[in-house]
Each structure stands twice: as C-alpha cells, then as structure tokens.
Automatic annotation (TrEMBL), chain A:
Record's protein name: Sugar ABC transporter permease
Record field: transmembrane: 6-27, 39-61, 99-119, 131-151, 198-220, 300-321
Protein's UniProt keywords contain Glycosyltransferase: no
Signal peptide: none
Record keywords: Cell membrane, Membrane, Transmembrane, Transmembrane helix, Transport
ABC transmembrane type-1 domain boundaries: 95-318
Residue ranges the record marks as coiled coil: none
Organism listed in the record: Nocardioides fonticola
CDD domains: TM_PBP2
Entry-linked PROSITE patterns: ABC_TM1 (PS50928)
Highest rank taxon of the organism: Bacteria
Family note: Belongs to the binding-protein-dependent transport system permease family.
UniProtKB/TrEMBL annotation, chain B:
Family: Belongs to the bacterial solute-binding protein 1 family.
Transmembrane spans: none
Pfam families with a match to the protein in the record: SBP_bac_8
Signal peptide stretch: 1-27
InterPro entries in the cross-refs: Bact_solute-bd_prot1 (IPR050490), SBP (IPR006059)
Highest taxon of the lineage: Bacteria
Name the UniProt record assigns to this protein: ABC transporter substrate-binding protein
Keyword vocabulary terms for this entry: Signal, Transport
Keyword Signal: yes
PANTHER family, per the entry: ARABINOSE-BINDING PROTEIN-RELATED, OSMOPROTECTIVE COMPOUNDS-BINDING PROTEIN GGTB
Species of the source: Nocardioides fonticola
Length: 330, 458
C-alpha cells in the first residue's frame, strides 16, 4: 500500500468517525427525558464496547480456547499444553528465568529510582540529573538491547597469543575493554549461564529506573512542607526522615510503580530476542510464547503460554488499578 | 449528449464485463496452455518479447509481487521488470518486507494474498500448496524450467507430481573464504580435497595462526550457520540421496551417519587449535555475529571461513573480492569421489496465487533466460546469481557471482537446497538452530541430535 493510499484511508476513517458521532448526536438530541439520557449514554458507550469486544475480549477467549487444543486445533487435549509448561526441562528453565526477572527488575529499578529521587531532590543540578536517568526511557527496548549488546561484546584477549603477525586483540565491548585495560581476563557476558540472565536484567533496570524516579520524585515533592518541618523540629536525622516520613507518604506511588514495572517485566520479549535470541538459557515466558506461536508454528502451546502470562499479570493489574484509585482519591 | 457521470458508469459496466470475460476465459483455458487477454502486445515483434506475445495486450493490468527482498537489493529487481512492462503494457507493483515469511501466512489466512510471492523456502511453498492457496504454473513456465534449470531445481517447486513454483535467484553456500594474498605469502595452496584442507589447517595452526574463524550469532536465528556446515558435510560424506532421506525424515535425525557428519564438523570447529581466529575459543563462535565471523581474515588473524556467496557483501568498502584481490572463496572440497560435486545452496521460488493472464505472463518472463540476463545487467554491484542455464556468465558483474554461476551450471554439480528450509518449522526454524547452538556451547553430538529427533512433529 502506498503512502497516498494510507493517507486516503486515514481521512476516510476520520470522516467516518465524525459521521457516526454526528448521526448519534442527531438521533439522540431529541430525547430529553430521563430515559432519553440512558439511550444517549448507551449510544456513546456501544461503539467502544463493540471495539473492545472485537479487539480484546474475542481474541482473549479464543486464545484460552486454543490453549486446550492440539497444535493443528483439531481436537481437545485438556491440560496437556499446560502440563508441558510445568514439566519440560526447557520450559521449567523459562519459568525460573521469568521469576528472576519479575523479582529483580521491579525491586531494583524502584529502589534505584527512589534513592536517586531522594538524593537529587532540591539539589542545584536536579533537572540535569533527572534528565540523565530519564533518557533511557526515551529509547525503545530493542534500541537499548542493541546498545547493551555492544557494551557486553566479547573477544578473548588471548585469541592471538602465539601468532607472529597478530598481537593485541581489539576489544569492541566497553566492559571487556575496561577488564582488558585492568589486566583482568575478558568475560563472555551474554554466554555464561546463569549469570547472563542477570546481565540482561540490568538492561531493563536501566530503562525502568527513570520511570520510577519520575513518579516517585513528583510524589516526594507533594509531601506537605509542614510535616517535614515538624519532623526537623523534632530533630530526626536524614535517614529517619526517609524511613518514617518519606516512604510512608509515598507508599501508594511506590506500589503503583512496583506493579507497573512488574507488568512490563512479565511482557519482556524485545531484550531477550535482540541480545541472545533466547539462546544460552535466557528465554522468558513472553519470548517463548512468540517462538511457539509464530516461528515453530505450535499455536496451542503458544496460546497456553499467553494464557499463563495473562493469569500471572491479572492480579497485579487489579491491585495496580485499586492503588491507582486510592492515589487519585487522596 | 454525454456528461462525465454517465460516462464513468458506462466505463464501470464495461470494466465489469471485461473482468467477467476474463474470468470465463480463464475458466475455459485452464487446461490448454497460456491464456491471453486478446489484442496485440505492445512489444510484439521485438526479439526479447517473443515469449510474451501470446498473452496479448495487457495494457493497464497490474501484477502485485510480494518478496523478502528489500532496499537496496530491490532496485535491481524493479529495474529488471522494464522489458516485461514494455513488452506487455502491464505494470508490476513490487512490495518487499523483512517480515515476509510470517506476513505471507497472515495474508493467506486473511484472504489478502498478492498475485506472486518469491518464497525462499520450498517447505513453505509446499505447505501453501497443500492449504490450497497456490495456482499451478502454466505450461510456458514449466517448459522454461525444463529448458533452463536442472531437474533438482524443478523438483523443489513440484508438489505431488504437479509443478507450481519456478526458481528465481540462487546462492551457493559451499564456499570457504580466504585471503589470496595471505595464502600466496605463506606458500599455502587452495585445497581440493577434504584431507588437503585438514592438512593445510595443521600447517597454518603450526605457524601460530588459528586456521578457522566462525560466527553463528544471528538474533533469534542463531545457529543457522552450523546447520549449513552440517548439511554441507552430509552431502560430502553420505551423498545427496541419504541427504534427501534425512531432510524428509525417512531416516531419523540422530542416525549414526548424521552423528558421524557432525563429528566431522566438530573436527574443525570444536578443535581449540583450529578456532576461533582473532576472536577467542570454541564457545566464542556462539556469541560472534555471523556478519563478523570472517572479518579476522582481513587482519591476518584467521585463514579460512566457510560461508555462502552472499558473505561478499560483508567485507566492507574498499575490500576487493576477487581471485587477485583481498579476499575470495574456494569450493568447499569433497571427502571422496563418490558423489560428484555436491553444491549446497538456497534460492527463491516464484509462487503464484492467481492465474490471470498478466500474472502468468509475468511468471513466464521470470522463468526465461531473458529475465536472468536482464537481472544480471541490472545488478552492477554484483551479489546476485541464478541457476538459470541461459544466464550468460559474462553478464554478471562480480568475480564471486561468476564463480557461483559457473558452479551452479557445472554439469557435474548436484544441487541440494538448504535442508533446514525444507524441514518442518518446529525443527528447521527451531530446534535445529537452537540445538546446534548448544552443541557449539559444549553439548555432545548425541545429546543435541537426540533432542532434535524428539522435537520432530509427529
């Protein structure tokens, strides 16, 4: 499809949208009674309900349905796909990795963001410091992964040992460059299990810490000045202030940040795909879901993995929404 | 009295009527050779248009083509269609996508298929044929393929005895890259047998240079380089027939012959004395990208790198790829004389999802020697070959393309398509890649072959 065709389609879509809205308005305009308001409300909600139904509910139900069938979707196999997830050695490793990601990324990213927010609060260079840690947020996960792939790039410092014409190996990776300069053996960060998963986790922490910092910093600034003043008059130390005033005051924001990062961690796929391609024992649930569904064409197992992610995410989402409401109510 | 509106309506009715005629014409002609749109082709009488004249005047018709070939390589493709457009009056609408394989299946399910797709995997052609999407190739295409391509090539476009997809481009994977200057300076000779090659490896290793370098990292496709290695050695050690049985799973994936072949590969790539020149030890192969795997040759840190003809694009600006230049390739030697000269390679197949006259005319054009030579001339930078025997090697612009074409046209050569592209995707785009990656990371031959065998879909 050419760009002009796409533009024309866009214009048509906008005109259609305005047209539908105008028709609804015209039709419901005359109904001014109490019942009329209900009709009006229904008329406006119906299109979005329809879209949610088609775009979200139907695929979700279909995915759950597929997860109980065989890979060609010709017959029901009960919980066989789920059984595979929890018994196959490969799949168990995936569950272990996912657990590591979900435990480490939200806690460390939030901790880093919180400490940073407190440290730079009201400092002279606050804006600049905040911009620094916020910048990675502006980079896509694939972009971030490619940057870190270069950081971790590996060449054995002794690869040319014994050659007459070789000599020093040129390091491309920053980390191995530093190790080499310090006279330490170079290290294959993305290869050596199980530590490579931790090095991948660092990437997401690097991206998410800025998000945590921004929300928490705003929250810290919202703590009423008089509480802090009263505490200072009582003679509390900086650490006590942090422990007894700051953290309790921003608790709802902390939870929102933790849960939001947990949700994006459960969905992490880009980092694994672009750094190791899932090799060397670094697969996670969302990546395996993609591989099974679209590459090895085993949509049933893919659907089961998607359903599992959904089941894991749902409680966090519900909790997140409740906390969000509480935060807004204050 | 004519106003614009009625005229448009008449035109619409006429178009519908013509479309109806076209459809009924197709229905009538389906079993009697090429259909025609009637009229005289704009290019009638010109020698290069001879094959296309019978399709008649196709002015105003459009053929949509969907491929995995994107910029900058697509420019040469588009340029090569000019003769077709001049001869028939039809236009070709070209669309390339890097997500081609996945998107094609999505478009098939959505009923939004292009007229023609260039599919690089015979396995995918077969599954689309079995799903009922693909139209049989017209007689004119079949005749062209008989004339210009080998039987091995035609077989890859044939499903259950019916011929569907004609070969388009090709690449040769059985190459070892080396530096002619480095070889000359050290008095090394290009080996012509496997034993010579191993003896040369020992000589080079004794001089202090690691003879081999490799890289298999390729994102989620990591490991494909090793599947090519194993396939190449299979062809040399057990021959094309056993190779076909192995690819089609008529012998188990973990057959002792396969294990022996993989151990032969291991004799090169798992020997710390031989690898990994300029990069590290054996396991560094796993994390080195395939694009960078051969580059140590340029610095004299490595002597040999087995990789396909398309690696020519990786050497970078200013590196002369020629027998008298900085780098060149030799044919990966055979282990014995029993199986002639096996060639492992890949290529695309022209698959049609429509049988309108203009589509069949375009298929005919692509399978002809006219197109192959037009394409060669339209690719001044090189990097393209075809197994089309009508292709004049002098029209190719780079030495490595000329070498590839001469190997493909060699009557002694037995061509075999990349096996992983023919296996079910759970294996060919799944466990075969990942388990070979585990193999170079330290797993044993038997362990990885057993794992691949158990993952083969029932």
């Amino acid at each position: 499809m050419s760009t002009t065709e796409k533009l024309i389609q866009m214009v048509i879509a906008i005109v259609l949208f305005l047209g539908v809205m105008a028709v609804i308005l015209l039709l419901t305009q005359r109904l001014r009674s109490r019942a009329g308001e209900r009709v009006q409300a229904a008329a406006f909600i119906a299109p979005s309900l329809l879209l949610i139904g088609v775009g979200l509910l139907y695929p979700a139900v279909k995915t759950v349905y597929l997860s109980f069938r065989n890979s060609a979707s010709t017959e029901f196999v009960g919980f066989e796909n789920y059984q595979k997830i929890f018994t196959n050695a490969d799949q168990l490793q995936i569950l272990r990795n996912t657990a590591l990601w979900v435990l480490l990324v939200p806690t460390i990213a939030t901790a880093v963001g919180l400490i940073y927010a407190v440290l730079v609060d009201r400092a002279r260079f606050e804006r600049f410091a905040k911009a620094l840690i916020f910048l990675p947020m502006a980079i896509s996960l694939v972009g971030a992964s490619i940057i870190w792939k270069f950081v971790y790039a590996y060449k054995d410092a002794n690869a040319n040992a014994g050659t007459t014409n070789g000599g020093k190996v040129e390091q491309i990776g920053v980390l191995n460059g530093i190790l080499d300069a310090l006279g330490i053996d170079t290290y294959n960060f993305l290869f050596n299990q199980p530590w490579n998963t931790l090095f991948l986790i660092v990437i997401l922490i690097w991206v998410q810490a800025g998000f945590a910092m921004t929300i928490l910093s705003a929250s810290i600034k919202a703590i009423p000045e008089d509480i802090i003043e009263a505490a200072r008059l009582d003679g509390v130390s900086g650490l006590q202030l942090f422990r007894h005033i700051t953290v309790p005051s921003i608790r709802p924001s902390l939870i929102v940040v933790l849960t939001t990062i947990s949700i994006s961690t459960l969905k992490v796929f880009d980092i694994v795909r672009s750094t190791t391609g899932g090799n060397f024992g670094t697969k996670v649930l969302a990546f395996e879901f993609y591989v099974q569904s679209f590459r090895t064409l085993n949509p049933a197992l893919g659907a089961a993995l998607a359903t599992l992610i959904f089941v894991l995410v749902s409680p966090i989402v519900l909790y997140n929404i409740r906390q969000m409401r509480r935060l807004e109510a204050r | 009295m004519t106003t614009p509106l009625p005229r448009r309506i008449t035109a619409g009715i006429a178009a519908l009527a013509i479309a109806g005629l076209g459809l009924s014409a197709c229905g009538d002609d389906s079993d009697s050779g090429s259909p025609s749109a009637g009229g005289t082709a704009p290019g009638a009488g010109k020698p290069e248009c001879a094959q296309l004249e019978s399709f008649g005047d196709l002015t105003g018709k459009t053929v949509s083509v969907y491929t995995s070939i994107v910029a900058p390589e697509d420019a040469a493709h588009k340029a090569s269609y000019k003769v077709f457009e001049d001869c028939t009056g039809a236009t070709v609408s070209y669309e390339g996508s890097q997500e081609f394989e996945a998107q094609l299946q999505v478009r098939a399910q959505a009923g939004n298929l292009p007229d023609i797709a260039y599919i690089p995997q015979p396995g995918l052609v077969k599954s689309l044929v079995e799903a009922g999407y693909v139209k049989e190739a017209p007689q004119s295409v079949s005749d062209n393929v008989d004339e210009f391509f080998g039987e091995d090539w035609k077989a890859y476009g044939t499903v259950d005895g019916k011929f569907y997809a004609a070969p388009l481009g090709a690449n040769v994977k059985s190459f070892v890259w080396y530096s002619p200057k480095m070889f000359a300076d050290n008095g090394w000779e290009v080996p012509t047998t496997w034993d010579d090659m191993m003896a040369l490896s020992d000589t080079i290793a004794a001089s202090g240079v690691k003879p081999w370098c490799a890289g298999i990292e390729s994102g989620e496709a990591t490991g494909w380089v090793l599947t090519d290695w194993l396939e190449d050695v299979m062809l040399r050690e057990v021959g094309p027939d056993v190779y076909d049985q192995w690819v089609n799973h008529e012998i188990p994936f973990n057959d002792p012959q396969v294990a022996a072949a993989l151990d032969t590969v291991g004799g090169v790539l798992k020997d710390e004395n031989y690898v990994n020149g300029g990069i590290g030890g054996v396991t560094s192969i796993a994390t080195t990208s395939f694009q960078e795997g051969g580059l140590p040759i340029l610095k004299g840190e490595c002597a040999m790198h087995r990789q396909a003809s398309f690696y020519a694009a990786q050497w970078g600006e200013g590196v002369k790829v020629a027998e008298d230049g900085d780098v060149f390739a030799f044919y990966l030697p055979t282990e014995n004389e029993d199986f002639g000269k096996p060639v492992l390679g890949g290529g695309e197949f022209v698959t049609a999802f429509s049988d309108r006259p203009e589509v069949q005319a375009f298929q005919t054009y692509l399978s002809s020697d006219v197109w192959a030579n037009e394409k060669a001339k339209a690719t001044p930078g090189g990097g393209w070959v075809s197994a089309n025997k009508g292709l004049d090697i002098a029209n190719l612009n780079s030495p490595i393309d000329q070498l590839s074409a001469s190997i493909l046209q060699d009557p002694d050569a037995t061509f075999r398509f990349d096996g992983s592209d023919q296996m079910p995707s759970a294996v060919g785009a799944g466990t075969f890649w990942s388990e070979m990656t585990n193999w170079i990371s330290g797993d044993s031959t038997s362990k990885v072959l057993d794992a691949i065998e158990s993952s083969w879909p029932a």
